[in-house]
Sequence to fold (312 residues):
Amino acid sequence: MRARYGIPLKITAGLTATAAAGLVYAAGFEARSFRLRRVTIPVLPRGMRDLRVLQVSDIHMVSGQRKKRAWLQSLAGLRPDFVVNTGDNLSDTKAVPELLDALGPLMEFPGVYVFGSNDYYGPRLSNPARYLKEKAQGRHGLNGNKPVVGAVHNPWEGMRDAFDAAGWVNLTNTRGRLKLPQAELAFTGLDDPHIKRDRYERVAGGPDTSADFTVGVVHAPYLRSLDSFTADGYELILAGHTHGGQLCIPFYGALVTNCDLDTDRVKGLSTHTVAERTSYLHVSAGCGTNRYTPVRFACPPEATLLTLTARA
Fold:
């Protein structure tokens, strides 16, 4: 018996130990290894002064996440010109007070926000492999799947009211403006396409030409939303949702985006083209995870400081 099965058992033990070590790293270290990315985008009109934009996304706050709260609070030290929150702030129905505490210093700056599905609904325990299955079948969120039954509703109204009270502009299927010392900016936002709450027809018509610059904002970068923004002439679109793939393969990248965006653009800066028009697209990998899958691998949690500069 030992001669027949000894080697397979050693291999199995080795694979098990490797998987366990990977899980410890992904959950115990990388998922809490917060970092800031810096990206420069040459998108502003000629002669316009640079703008420093802090994008936070997919915080997925859970009660007791002290390190994440402290890190988010520390981002105020960057002194951005304004903040863009691209949604999915919650992963715990009781975490609104801690989320607002974490974002409190950032709410001292001008800001805009959209919500994602996890702001409206609590997380569910599910098999992570379903993302691969949904990708293979072309189904994501409610875009091809049946509506969720018995969903837990988050107390998102209190979060919205606090954002509004701080002066952050709600971009839920609407337009808004921020008047900064160096520029007046316009924004066009959508509710979350992942759960089919986007209503582009309500905001169609292109950038606000009376503003110095206009930005498109959406939580989940579904192609229908990107196509609409780009076809209407928006030069910059900001999104989140993808978690950068969350569990990535070193030297290969993400396996899924949890929407119909291709994995080559799962995070960071890229472009999106429709007909003869092209937009810059920035997708944040976010700084959190669903509370039931608190792991990241080869995809550390992040926020991004975007420096918008004038076109050459």
